[in-house]
Amino acid sequence: MTRTIHSPRWLLTGALAASLLVGCQGSGARGNYGSSATQFQDVVVPAGMRLRDHENESYSSEVATWKKAHLIYTGQVSVKDADSYVRLRMPAHGWELAEQTQLEGGGVQLRFERHIYSALYQISRGDGVTTMVVDYSTDESRR
Predict the structure, then answer these.
(1) What does R_g of the chain's alpha carbons equal in angstroms?
(2) Measured between alpha carbons, how far is 7 from 73 in angstroms, rounded to an integer?
(3) Alpha carbon distance 142, 64 (integer Å)
(4) Which CATH entry fits the domain spanning 29-142: 3.30.310, 1.10.287, 3.40.50, 2.40.50?
């Protein structure tokens, strides 16, 4: 009978390799092709709305002061309540309502601006669920 003895060095090498593989996954939700969706701290989301991050539906990127995101949330919050919440909370983060539009079917579109950034919220209801899409971007022309 042959006995294999594992040295502490071998175990340490294996543990280090495993930790590197886990560490490469990063933070934020990851889709099938490596895109990630992380909610920026100045994006407000009503309680009960959840980020859809499967199949690369949502994504976000931030490099220094440049930000870009397409975030899709769904939940059972009414359009009216989600609209009210966003209108109330965005100014607390320094955002100013620049434009509002009523959408067909009772939905609403709200465009906010702050410094070099814009955030477009589209809130609608269909198939028994409320969907809120947030398109966040850096406006290079306002730098």
Answers:
(1) 21
(2) 50
(3) 16
(4) 3.30.310
What's the farthest any 2 CA atoms get from each other in the chain? 79
Give whole-number Cα distances, 74 to 43, 48, 77, 98, 129, in Å: 15, 8, 9, 24, 7
What confidence category does residue 32 fall into, taking pLDDT thresholds of 50, 70 and 90? very low
Amino acid at 138: T
pLDDT score, position 88: 97
Q: Which residue has the higher pLDDT, 8 or 59?
A: 59
Cβ atoms < 10 Å from Cβ of 90: 20
| Mean local confidence (pLDDT), 80-95 | 96
- Coil, strand or helix at 83: helix
Spatial distance between the Cα atoms of 105 and 102, rounded to a whole number of angstroms: 9
Rounded CA separation 71/108 (Å): 16
> Above 80 in pLDDT, residue 8?
no
DSSP designation for 5: -
